[in-house]
Amino acid sequence: MVKPLGFSIDDKAIKRAGMDYWSSIDIIVYDSTEHFLQEHGNKRLIMATTKTNRLYSNFKYEEGDFIVFGPESRGLPAELLKKHKDRNVTIPMKEHPLARSLNLSNAVAVITYEALRQIDFKGIR
To answer: Is the pTM higher than 0.70?
Structure first.
């Protein structure tokens, strides 16, 4: 996770939502996008965005990929999308003026589980 977060990970509601597996989750918080990129910018970064036509399900994920999601309100910065334009993916949505995209947690679940499926769920079985 990259700061600023739009929520508290110390909040009782978040911990309660994690229930019995909260203590098993390895959360790393970066102070900024720059800090994250210093640590992982040489890895393959997959950008989740509404600003591409490449379906998340048609992309070939590899072990070690990082899937990057932006804030729910505005998405990822244009310069980041442009830099990784060959690795931008989207979830198809029915055209409707009020339905621009799924909420962030649902989008993370959809794309992450497709990536895990493609690598035969390595690391979680």
So the answer is: yes
